[in-house]
Amino acid sequence: MNRTVKIALIIVGITLAICCLAFFGGYLFLKRQFDVVADPDQARTMAHSITDYTLPSGYSEQFGFRVANLFTYVVIAPTTNEQDGMLFVLAQAPDDAGFDPETARTTVEGQVGRRMEGVQQTEERTVTIRGEERTMLIFEGTDAESGEAMRMAFVSFTGNNGPAFLLVISPSTAWDEEALNQFIASMR
After folding, report:
1. Which of 29, 56, 64, 112 is the most exposed place for a label (fewest CB within 10 A)?
2. Among the listed residues 130, 12, 17, 19, the one whose alpha carbon sits nearest the alpha carbon of residue 70
3. What torsion, rounded to 10 degrees, do the Cα atoms 18, 150, 9, 138 define?
4. Strand partners, 92
């Protein structure tokens, strides 16, 4: 299993935890509604339902999933498995879902803390997404399994159909600040 696949599995685990803990708790466990979209074209359509954007060179929508037919998540990763890079997760909840960005952020931190050791917030920066100034948090830590240094960014924003967030995670050696800034600036 290559590093990109492992990171993708971490991202899926984090986002599932966010859904389960931050949004509906027990409701998801009772209904068990979960739809995985493995087709990249359908994942692209899902992602653009959250926000329009231009991908950095070498990246593509890999897969998406819906939880309880309400919450949408799309994973964007390097196009080839041989290429190391960042993983972007776009997520959106409907306006009436009770999305709380602070709860989502603390849930992400807690879940990442289970896979990463020594997670520390290292930076807080203002970014503009879709015309709104938002606060993006940057975290660093070490992968608990490999010992590799990791970075993560989290920012909430207003998507096409309600509250949304962007989560970016990567080995520190593959972190691409230019690609991150390009992606954020392209979100419209």
Report:
1. 29
2. 19
3. 30
4. 72, 164
Instruction: Determine the residue type at 71.
Output: F
Domain regions of the chain by residue span: 3-186
- Taking 80 as the threshold, does the pLDDT of residue 30 lie above it? no
Please give the helix or strand (H or E) that residue 142 lies within, else none: strand 132-143
User: Tokens 């240094």, residue?
Assistant: 149
Distance (Å, whole) CA 176 – CA 155: 17
57-106 per-position pLDDT tens digit: 999 999 999 887 778 999 999 998 767 899 999 999 887 777 676 777 67
| 3 state SS of 25 | coil
**Chain centre to alpha carbon of residue 158:** 15
Tokens of 97: 């879902």
Rounded to 5 degrees, φ, ψ at 24 are -125, -10
Q: What is the DSSP letter of 95?
A: G
Q: pLDDT tens digits for 51-65?
A: 999 999 999 999 999
In contact, 153 and 136? CB cutoff 8 Å: yes
Residues present in the chain in total: 188
pLDDT of residue 84: 80
Residue 158 CB-half CA count within 13 A: 5
Supply 176's token pair.
């691409």
Amino acid at 96: D
Instruction: Give the CATH number of domain 3-186.
Output: 3.40.1000
